Structure formats: structure tokens, C-alpha cells
């Protein structure tokens, strides 16, 4: 009965969804492409072939990047596999194009009405569905079970905040989690929270973001630019809305922006410069962030305008997609976006894989396990606020021994926690064998 009410609500919301997509398409045109796919209407043919059709849903950019390691292992474990790749955001879809091979298909995630979900499952007929990390929709889960499609939550995580929210909607959340075929959690804490909602947790495999390998060419280019930089480069990685303004306020109170002047509490004063690199998490904010720093009186050089070398400016703005390895190669250390405002943090594993230590604020609940592991390894440093993070990061940038130690700790973090993607691929193969 309760899901029927939910289904009615999602059906009634369809005109609003289309309107929202058209508005978003003004800034991000990809949202306007193939809009009917979101409602279960397709123009491209369904994949054909003898190998299993594996449906992988990676809602956004972060999940799509994390899927790279999993897909590598899946293609090895399932020869001839065909991929049905779905997304909910434009950044996810854009990044997902590079993961496709001949015979694969990429479409939008169906909006969670009974009709759209029915049409999606009937048209493509996947042998198994894999949902990345947190992305659950009640009708998608329930109708997959009814259609005999084993639907699994992989690299699964659930924060305390998300658990509390789900428990407030337990009438909808519990049946959804219970209807999953299997859940493979990132950590024991995630597994416990997922089980509180009735999820069938079949294993704790770790986080296969640790299995990801940075793009070697981009990383090498960033390292070359780092070597030529006039000052050590401090990156604000995946900064979120409001955090750049927080940074400007801290700098205004304590020090000029370019070059940053660091005055430690010791009697002697050391004046040393820092080159800022700001990489916002969401591309629709690139223009706003550039305007924010320009209005504050600083010169801004956007990555899209650099050419062969970075342009001299107070602030470098990373306004490109798919180049995080280049940015981390360019930076000696990074501040973790999303952790200074109450937004739960961002993934710091990619920074560690590039040997970049991270200074993080108090709000890392979306990536609590990775943040704890990184802090214990000496690859990340918890700070009370952005001002403290800036002080500690700036100090480390001018302490060669401490910086080298933290960079080595960051590189070692990934090596110590690899293997989750392989374990997940083996589990997927086992499910397909049992269901065939």
C-alpha cells in the first residue's frame, strides 16, 4: 500500500522532472539529450551477444570513476560480458562514455515510476544489476526482484546521517533494502548500518576506489608543472558551495592570498609563498567560483585557458573534467572539499593514490572509513576548521621532511587496501552462476 502511494507520487512528478531537466540543460546541455530514456523509451537497440549482460548503475561522477576498477575485474571474470551502463547526472554520463566497449550500451537511469522501470527491464533484460554505493530507488529494486534480476549493492556505504534519514522513512526504506539480492559493504560499520535496514549483507570487501590507478600521462604532466611552479601548490580539492567563500574569509582575516604569508607561533617569522589551485566539485559552479575570486581582487587563470603551461595568476582554477590526476600531480598537498561545510566530505582516495596528503575538516561522514584509514596511516590530517587546515597545510609545504613522510604514507595507503574490486567481481560471477 505504501509503495503504491510512492509510485503514484513519482508518476505525478514526471512533468516536474522534465522541467527540471530542461532547466539544467541550459548550463549542462547533456541533461537535455535523450530525455525520453529517463521514462523508459529507447531508440538504440538492446545489446546482443552470448556473454552475460551486466547492468551497472553509477549515478554520478564519483561512482563512475570508482567503477573503472570494478569493470576491469568484471571483464576478466566474465569473458564476453556486455555492459549496460546507467547514470543519473551529466557528469557521470560524460565520464562513463570512456568505459564502453563494442557491444556495450549507455542510457539514463529510468525515473522511478512503475512504467519506466518495467519498460527498462523488459527492453534490456539484464542478467544482473549492480548499484554503486548508495543508489537505491524503491520501484527499481522491487521490480527487479519481481523480474528475476538479482540486484546487488556494491561498494556499499551508509553513513549515520543517511541511516537516520532512512529510519524516518522505514516504511519505504526497509522493504527496499530487504528486496536486494546481495549487499557487499565497504566496512564493518557500513555493514552494521545496512543490516539495521534489513539489507542482505553478504560480505565486507573494502572500498574498490583503492584499486583505481591514476591516469599516468595526466599525473606525469601535473608533476612536471609542479616542478616548474614558482611556489608550492596547495589544492582545494572538490570544493563545494560556500567553501570558497569560507576560504576567502580566512585569508582576509589572516593573510593575503598571493603569495600566502605564513607566520608560525615561534618567535621567528617565516614568509613563504603558496600557489592556490581551486578545483570545484561541480562543473556548473566553475563560472561562479571564478567570479568570486575575481570580485575579491585576485587574478584567476582557468585550466581551460592555460594551453601548454599554467598561466601566472593568484589562483589557478581547475575547470575541466577527467583531469583530477593532473591536478593532484600539480599539488603537493590538498584541502578536502565538502569537509569544511556540513556536506560530508569527498573521496580522498584518489589524492592518496597520487601521493598527495590531505587536510580535512570535521565533516567527513560520507567517507568516514576512508578518512579514518587515511588519518591512521598519516596520509590525512583532521582539522577543526578551515583556518587550522590552512595553517597546518602551509606549514607542511615548507617542511620538506614532514611533507615527504606524508606523501609516502599517502602512496602506501592504496597498496595496503587493494583487492575489493576483485572480490566483488568474483562474487558477481558466483551470483550469475547460481542464477543461470
UniProtKB/TrEMBL annotation:
<dbReference type="InterPro" id="IPR039901">
    <property type="entry name" value="Kdotransferase"/>
</dbReference>
<keyword id="KW-0328">Glycosyltransferase</keyword>
<keyword id="KW-1003">Cell membrane</keyword>
<feature type="domain" description="3-deoxy-D-manno-octulosonic-acid transferase N-terminal">
    <location>
        <begin position="34"/>
        <end position="212"/>
    </location>
</feature>
<keyword id="KW-0472">Membrane</keyword>
<dbReference type="GO" id="GO:0043842">
    <property type="term" value="F:Kdo transferase activity"/>
</dbReference>
<keyword id="KW-0448">Lipopolysaccharide biosynthesis</keyword>
<keyword id="KW-0808">Transferase</keyword>
<comment type="similarity">
    <text>Belongs to the glycosyltransferase group 1 family.</text>
</comment>
<protein>
    <recommendedName>
        <fullName>3-deoxy-D-manno-octulosonic acid transferase</fullName>
        <ecNumber>2.4.99.12</ecNumber>
    </recommendedName>
</protein>
<comment type="function">
    <text>Involved in lipopolysaccharide (LPS) biosynthesis. Catalyzes the transfer of 3-deoxy-D-manno-octulosonate (Kdo) residue(s) from CMP-Kdo to lipid IV(A), the tetraacyldisaccharide-1,4'-bisphosphate precursor of lipid A.</text>
</comment>
<dbReference type="Pfam" id="PF04413">
    <property type="entry name" value="Glycos_transf_N"/>
</dbReference>
<dbReference type="InterPro" id="IPR038107">
    <property type="entry name" value="Glycos_transf_N_sf"/>
</dbReference>
<comment type="pathway">
    <text>Bacterial outer membrane biogenesis; LPS core biosynthesis.</text>
</comment>
<dbReference type="InterPro" id="IPR007507">
    <property type="entry name" value="Glycos_transf_N"/>
</dbReference>
Amino acid at each position: 500500500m505504501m509503495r503504491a502511494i510512492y509510485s503514484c507520487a513519482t508518476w505525478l512528478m514526471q512533468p516536474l522532472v522534465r522541467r527540471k531537466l530542461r532547466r539544467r540543460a541550459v548550463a549542462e546541455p547533456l541533461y537535455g539529450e535523450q530525455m525520453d530514456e529517463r521514462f523508459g523509451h529507447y531508440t538504440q537497440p538492446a545489446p546482443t551477444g552470448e556473454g552475460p549482460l551486466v547492468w551497472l548503475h553509477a549515478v554520478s561522477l564519483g561512482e563512475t570513476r570508482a567503477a573503472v576498477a570494478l569493470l576491469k575485474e568484471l571483464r576478466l571474470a566474465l569473458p564476453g560480458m556486455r555492459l549496460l551502463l546507467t547514470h543519473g547526472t551529466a557528469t557521470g554520463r560524460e565520464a562513463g562514455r570512456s568505459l564502453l566497449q563494442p557491444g556495450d550500451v549507455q542510457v539514463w537511469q529510468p525515473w522511478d515510476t512503475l512504467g519506466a522501470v518495467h519498460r527498462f527491464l523488459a527492453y534490456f533484460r539484464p542478467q544482473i544489476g549492480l548499484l554503486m554505493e548508495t543508489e537505491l530507488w524503491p520501484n527499481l529494486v522491487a521490480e527487479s526482484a519481481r523480474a528475476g534480476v538479482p540486484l546487488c549493492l556494491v561498494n556499499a556505504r551508509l553513513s549515520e546521517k543517511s541511516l537516520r534519514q532512512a529510519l524516518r522513512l522505514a516504511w519505504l526504506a526497509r522493504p527496499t533494502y530487504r528486496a536486494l539480492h546481495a549487499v557487499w559493504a565497504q566496512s564493518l560499520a557500513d555493514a552494521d548500518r545496512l543490516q539495521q535496514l534489513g539489507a542482505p549483507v553478504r560480505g565486507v570487501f573494502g572500498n574498490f576506489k583503492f584499486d583505481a590507478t591514476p591516469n599516468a600521462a595526466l599525473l606525469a604532466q601535473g608533476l612536471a608543472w609542479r616542478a616548474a611552479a614558482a611556489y608550492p601548490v596547495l589544492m582545494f580539492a572538490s570544493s563545494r558551495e560556500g567553501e570558497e567563500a569560507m576560504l576567502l574569509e580566512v585569508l582576509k582575516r589572516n593573510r593575503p592570498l598571493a603569495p600566502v604569508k605564513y607566520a608560525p607561533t615561534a618567535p621567528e617569522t617565516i614568509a613563504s609563498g603558496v600557489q592556490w589551485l581551486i578545483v570545484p566539485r561541480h562543473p556548473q559552479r566553475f563560472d561562479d567560483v571564478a567570479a568570486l575570486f575575481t570580485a575579491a581582487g585576485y587574478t584567476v587563470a582557468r585550466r581551460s585557458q592555460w594551453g601548454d603551461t599554467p598561466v601566472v595568476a593568484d589562483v589557478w582554477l581547475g575547470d575541466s573534467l577527467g583531469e583530477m590526476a593532473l591536478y593532484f600531480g600539480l599539488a603537493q598537498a590538498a584541502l578536502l572539499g565538502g569537509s569544511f561545510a556540513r556536506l560530508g566530505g569527498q573521496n580522498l582516495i584518489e589524492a592518496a593514490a597520487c601521493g598527495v596528503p590531505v587536510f580535512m575538516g570535521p565533516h567527513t561522514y560520507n567517507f568516514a572509513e576512508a578518512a579514518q584509514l587515511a588519518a591512521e596511516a598519516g596520509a590525512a590530517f583532521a582539522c577543526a576548521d578551515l583556518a587550522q587546515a590552512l595553517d597546518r597545510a602551509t606549514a607542511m609545504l615548507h617542511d620538506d621532511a614532514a611533507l615527504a613522510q606524508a606523501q609516502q604514507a599517502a602512496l602506501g595507503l592504496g597498496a595496503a587496501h587493494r583487492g575489493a574490486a576483485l572480490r566483488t567481481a568474483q562474487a558477481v560471477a558466483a551470483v550469475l552462476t547460481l542464477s543461470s
